[in-house]
Task: inverse folding
């Protein structure tokens, strides 16, 4: 309402439009183009309509990895969100300890995906890895390379190790924004610790949690590097998620048409789930 | 129900306070009686919020004792002190309804639900919240939210005092007086000790039967609004209460009274006798603009002054006059015309107050 | 410089913010915009500044059309409610910043900064940062920044509202002094009638986006054009009682009667609204023709040196503004006296029919 009207402002936004066009819109259009044609070489391309889509949607590999993908993303959220909130709640609020905790939390976020994968690939090995050797030493039969359950657990663990910090940091900043008066009022009202969490902290963390859940969902839904580095998607296909299935199709078999159709389906799923989630949350906010 | 006694209380935010400047609260002894309506009035930074936090238990005083009904509560956390507090910015539990907000302190104390219902309905009726009782608290207006946070204190039978920390800051001006009236009414109905912290003299005087004026970490006067207006104990009270504040003029001793810039102000025999005995040179006289007599022509005891400027405030005018080298403000009623040329003023002796080292010298009469 | 608004209207998303504003501000004048929250004061100021474009109408400066000229190209200063300064600059740099933007030579800048700081009593703080200062000093810094360049138009949007009342008193007094000598137009928005009176100059009453009345402050105060104007320019609000005029007397709500006096004799028989200022109702009669009313006290609000008493009987409520401290408990029965020769008379349409004749006691 109180904005200055100045049409020149549009010129300032122009570079962003150009950038987005080159980085997102044009590649996306290329993918759309591929997904409806059968391409043999530069001069031999045939329009096939929705054929690739039909093929992809009937492909059991897609069904399997989609299911795995959903279970995986769900598990990531189910662990990282409560854990992140818990860590944020336990963090000291001020002083040198607070800064130290913040730095420690930030470290995993600075490490690139493939490095994280490599670290754990070695760390988890039964022969030379500290983690794997320790587990085996305790009499637990652990081998991520041969046991699908172990492989799953390790990939999950990597994600939790890598990304819980993000949720914790988001929640920490959300908690710091709650005015002191709320805690004082709760204390005067003799609220229990749980009541303080349930009625003061949680409602006020909602907006950062929406961001946290969205980021972690989208990111985990596109997971590629870690399982690729760790197990290459195995044993069997047990840790082959959507993006890896896609890569195998596009790069491994060079099925560009189905791969493009797959990409679009994939993209639409992420978009749909995020949109559903976002509208449900904002809708709940508006309801009286 | 409780009487709150602050015994030799002092507080410093520093571990080893050396000078009095290190203290946020300087040593004081003060009693808030059971059932009273009090205000703690002072400018920002005078220590009033510190004092409030010490009473509620959010802060432990570094020296002295806080006694509730003669029992030391220094180490007692807020929840055991049975004190409710209304903050400057409304604190409501956003995700709950108004009903659940009011029920919250009772449910925390495991009060049976039937009793909760009765109590919440009773308090909602008094606060005129019954129409919004089942709305979510976050959708309320600021004044309704403040009523909810007050209501959470009122539902409890065991609350001995309610503390208000500038509760009307975020309330629209035209709703302020309604809420002030509500507060007053509730005080009369509930017989709970209430302490209201504010920097606004209107809020303080309207709400409280007695006002403690704080300045520089000390309570400089504790009295009724009338006492604060008519005989301010300290020059700061004279300046701070009233709009404009008291005229305060530095003076020297002279024959039969005091003087400044060759202007003689006679004082009563009692004050003259008193003045003869004191060593201090920090003397001031004070007179309120409301009590300065303004004449159009010379009369006995009147001083000739020059009119520097005037403000016409509709209901009255405030004249700024020069007497000697001092500027003096005087109030002129609406139906009096601005005098032309010289303005003559006189100071009725009963309203001329003498201050030694900033504190009032009281006359016994 | 002079500033004229011609039929200025601003509509945002179908909601009228400003409706058909016509007004001229003379060079060197001090103008107060008085109105409640959301009356359109800020909207009007933004139009004057060029921050917003009017939906229709023209804005003229010195006779030249400046409608649509952006704020950067007009010579304007503005002071806001919030204390807005550059936090990383010292007070000196803050005050100098408009001059630097105007490319004034460095030697002159220092001189101007000193003068302006002296005027606003912030010389001792020139090397401090704004956030290390008290609220009053921060706002003085913001004002200094507005005053340091010779802006043709200086806009103040409720600049004192976030300060405590003692500081307000002080700054208000200084503002009047500061603007005595200047050639620029000052426009000052406030919600408080008291502030408008204290500042003097010209007062423009705004209500729901419309200019209700404009003129010298005393004229607007003593002869409001209608009930809205009277209510806006009266704190506490003016008392309004419905009454019937017959050939010989006035009747309030079928309850209290008094004979028509000299001032009211000209009224045609019929229904009217009678207004009386809170300060004119008293606890003791001032004149023989005062109307005595029995009432109960609702609340006595004491503001240090004044008392606002809210009283009512079964017919109507009244507010009294009394000098000094009067302590009454709620529901005390008291008699109040209404001066029948100090009544404002409004028609049933709200328009002023007559204002009380001023009688000055010598």
Result:
């Amino acid at each position: 309402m109180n904005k200055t009207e100045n049409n020149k402002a549009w010129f300032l936004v122009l570079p962003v439009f150009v950038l987005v066009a080159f980085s997102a819109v044009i590649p996306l259009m290329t993918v759309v183009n591929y997904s409806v044609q059968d391409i043999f070489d530069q001069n031999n391309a045939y329009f096939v309509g929705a054929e690739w889509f039909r093929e992809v949607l009937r492909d059991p590999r897609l069904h399997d990895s989609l299911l795995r993908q959903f279970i995986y993303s769900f598990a990531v959220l189910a662990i990282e969100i409560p854990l992140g909130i818990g860590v944020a709640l336990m963090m000291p609020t001020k002083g040198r300890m607070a800064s130290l905790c913040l730095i420690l939390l930030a470290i995993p976020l600075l490490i690139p995906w493939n490095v994280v994968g490599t670290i754990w690939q070695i760390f988890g090995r039964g022969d030379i890895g500290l983690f794997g050797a320790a587990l085996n030493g305790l009499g637990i039969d652990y081998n991520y390379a041969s046991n699908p359950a172990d492989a799953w657990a390790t990939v999950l663990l990597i994600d939790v190790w890598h990304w819980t910090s993000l949720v914790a940091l988001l929640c920490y900043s959300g908690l710091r924004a709650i005015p002191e008066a709320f805690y004082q009022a709760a204390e005067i009202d003799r609220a229990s610790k749980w009541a303080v969490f349930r009625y003061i902290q949680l409602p006020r963390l909602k907006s950062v949690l929406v961001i946290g859940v969205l980021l972690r969902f989208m990111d985990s839904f596109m997971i590629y590097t870690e399982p690729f580095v760790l197990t290459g998607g195995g044993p069997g296909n047990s840790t082959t998620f959507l993006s890896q299935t896609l890569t195998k199709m596009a790069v491994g078999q060079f099925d560009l048409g189905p791969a493009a159709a797959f990409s679009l389906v994939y993209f639409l799923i992420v978009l749909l789930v995020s949109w559903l989630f976002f509208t449900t949350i904002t809708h709940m906010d508006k309801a009286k | 129900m409780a009487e709150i006694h602050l015994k030799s209380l002092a507080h410093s935010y520093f571990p080893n306070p050396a000078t009095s400047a290190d203290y946020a609260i300087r040593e004081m002894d003060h009693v808030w009686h059971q059932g009273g309506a009090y205000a703690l009035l002072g400018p920002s930074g005078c220590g009033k919020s510190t004092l409030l936090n010490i009473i509620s238990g959010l802060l432990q005083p570094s020296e002295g004792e806080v006694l509730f009904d003669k029992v030391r509560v220094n180490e007692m956390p807020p929840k055991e002190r049975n004190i409710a507090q209304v903050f400057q910015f409304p604190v409501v539990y956003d995700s709950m309804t108004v009903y659940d907000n009011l029920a919250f302190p009772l449910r925390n104390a495991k009060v049976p639900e039937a009793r909760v219902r009765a109590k919440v309905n009773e308090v909602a009726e008094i606060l005129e919240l019954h129409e919004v009782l089942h709305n979510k608290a976050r959708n309320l207006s600021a004044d309704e939210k403040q009523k909810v946070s007050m209501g959470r204190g009122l539902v409890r039978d065991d609350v001995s005092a309610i503390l208000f920390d500038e509760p009307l800051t975020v309330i629209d001006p035209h709703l302020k007086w309604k809420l002030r009236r509500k507060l007053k009414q509730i005080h009369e109905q509930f017989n709970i000790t209430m302490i209201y912290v504010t920097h606004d003299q209107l809020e303080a005087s309207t709400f409280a039967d007695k006002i403690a004026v704080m300045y520089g970490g000390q309570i400089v006067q504790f009295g009724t609004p009338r006492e604060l207006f008519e005989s301010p104990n300290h020059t700061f009270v004279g300046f701070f209460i009233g709009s404009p504040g008291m005229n305060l003029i530095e003076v020297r001793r002279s024959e039969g009274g005091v003087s400044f810039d060759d202007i003689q102000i006679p004082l009563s025999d009692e004050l003259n006798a008193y003045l003869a005995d004191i060593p201090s040179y920090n003397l001031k006289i004070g007179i309120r603009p409301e009590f300065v007599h303004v004449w159009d022509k010379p009369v006995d005891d009147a001083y000739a002054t020059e009119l520097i400027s005037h403000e016409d405030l509709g209901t009255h005018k405030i004249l700024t006059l020069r007497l000697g080298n001092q500027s003096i403000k005087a109030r002129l009623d609406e139906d009096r015309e601005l005098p032309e040329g010289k303005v003559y003023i006189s100071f009725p002796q009963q309203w001329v107050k003498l201050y030694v080292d900033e504190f009032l010298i009281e006359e016994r009469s | 410089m002079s500033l004229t608004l011609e039929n200025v209207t601003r509509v945002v998303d179908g909601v009228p913010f400003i409706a058909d504003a016509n007004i001229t501000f003379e060079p060197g004048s001090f103008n107060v915009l008085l109105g409640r929250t959301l009356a359109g004061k800020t909207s009007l100021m933004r139009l004057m500044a060029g921050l917003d474009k009017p939906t229709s109408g023209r804005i003229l400066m010195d006779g030249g059309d400046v409608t649509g000229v952006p704020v950067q190209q007009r010579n304007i200063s503005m002071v806001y409610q919030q204390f807005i300064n550059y936090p990383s600059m010292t007070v000196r740099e803050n005050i100098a910043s408009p001059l630097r933007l105007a490319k004034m030579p460095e030697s002159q800048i220092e001189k101007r900064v000193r003068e302006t700081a002296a005027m606003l009593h912030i010389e001792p703080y020139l090397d401090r940062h704004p956030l290390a200062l008290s609220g009053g000093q921060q706002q003085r810094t913001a004002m200094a920044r507005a005053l340091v360049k010779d802006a043709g138009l200086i806009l103040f949007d409720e600049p004192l509202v976030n300060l405590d009342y003692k500081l307000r008193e002080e700054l208000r007094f200084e503002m009047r002094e500061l603007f005595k000598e200047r050639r620029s137009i000052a426009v000052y928005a406030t919600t408080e009638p008291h502030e408008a009176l204290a500042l003097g100059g010209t007062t423009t009453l705004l209500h729901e986006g419309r200019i209700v009345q404009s003129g010298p402050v005393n004229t607007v105060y003593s002869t409001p054009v209608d009930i809205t104007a009277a209510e806006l320019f009266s704190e506490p609000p003016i008392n309004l009682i419905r009454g019937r005029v017959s050939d010989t007397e006035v009747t309030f709500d079928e309850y209290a009667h008094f004979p028509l006096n000299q001032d009211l004799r000209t009224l045609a028989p019929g229904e009217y609204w009678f207004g009386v200022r809170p300060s004119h109702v008293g606890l003791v009669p001032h004149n023989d023709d005062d109307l005595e009313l029995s009432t109960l006290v609702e609340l006595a609000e004491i503001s240090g040196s004044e008392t606002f008493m809210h009283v009512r009987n079964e017919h109507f409520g009244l507010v009294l503004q009394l000098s000094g401290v009067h302590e009454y408990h709620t529901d005390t029965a008291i008699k109040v006296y209404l001066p029948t020769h100090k009544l404002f008379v409004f028609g049933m349409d709200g328009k002023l029919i007559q204002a009380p004749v001023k009688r000055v006691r010598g």
